[in-house]
Amino acid sequence: MRKFVYSGSLVVALTLTLTGGARAGDHSKVTVPTLTGFASLPAATFVPGSEPSGALVTGNTNGFPVPFADQPVQGFSGIVNNGDGTFDVLSDNGYGNQANSGDFLLRVQRLAPAFADNEVDVLGGVNLTDPAGHVPWKLTREDRVLTGADFDVESIVKDAAGGYWIGDEFGPYLLHFDRAGRLLSAPVPLDGVTAPETATRTGTTANLGGSKGFEGLAKSPDGRHLYALLEGSVTGDTPGDLRLNEFDTRTGKYTGKRYVYRLGAPNLAIGDAIAIDRHRFLIIERDGGQGATAVIKRLYIADTRDRDKDGLVDKTLLVDLMNIADPRGVGGFGATFTFPFQTIEDVVILNEKTVAVLNDNNFPFSSGRTAGVADNNEWITIELPSSLNPDKRIFPAQSR
């Protein structure tokens, strides 16, 4: 793993790389979504000097013996742009379920892609903790460091103070942390919706599938509202219809307003949801296939204004992630680049015509790029044929 020290020139270089200047070079206007950057973090990347992990992992680990000596830097399920060439990226809950993830420490990783070298640098990060005892049930660890048996964290935005709002799938809950990763208040449940993991804790009845809570979390451009998107349909709703719930950060309560996002088919899932402006969102929609069985991996624009008045948010296909033009061979896989991963769970807008997308590699299980080989965490940038016309407030202040 490469190491470096921050400097003003580094920030400038990283910013140029992220917007396509350093890696992609000058080129004429693209007419289709086109790959402009490719970087990869090796699957076997671990937090130095951390705790062992993976003692309860079973099944095919693609050649990696368990337990691991340290905590893996893996499973990216949400991303926020720091505006200086670095990003805070949320690691997933661990190893796929609540039962086997009690020794995986929930963590926000700080990363910097270096597209000129096709690499990703790990700069550090913070573990998520609850030192003040806001979680009312017994946690896995007595020291109140949060684990993948406590929450399934899948989505993240920053607050005005540099802390984090994080969406959880086990509740589903909204969790508010400070910049050091300390929980600031009790988990906020979603009225009328209960996942099985919480039903077991509370003795209530579940009306949502396991780990089908908040896969996407978007922040309004003014920072007042959060929009939390469920991954699964609530019992009684039309299969494939997902609730997008509005939350007021000032009151700490849901407003009662919600929208409906309809998947292309009930067996599909969303991977992330972020804001473009007050009405529009970017949403990743995917099937569960990988490698040769990966078919639907798409990025949509969703518009809550419902112009056709059918009661659903309007959807427009933006990028087919299985069919990205790569005329310059940036990705190294020919003139057409595919992103054939089981779970693709991160999208971020870099500028009005460029987005970045990351996969969740489910380390050590997924092998979408090469059969039998654990996937790396890949990080790509895509130039769009036309501007998204985003609200400038969605960008960090230093990059506007």
From TrEMBL:
Stretch forming the signal peptide: 1-24
Pfam annotation, one family:
Phytase-like
Recite the UniProt keywords alphabetically.
Answer: Signal
Residues annotated as domain Phytase-like: 71-363
Q: InterPro entries under this entry?
A: Phytase-like_dom (IPR027372)
* Protein name in the entry: Esterase-like activity of phytase family protein
Q: Which organism is it from?
A: Actinoplanes subglobosus
Starting at the broadest rank, the lineage of the source organism is: Bacteria, Bacillati, Actinomycetota, Actinomycetes, Micromonosporales
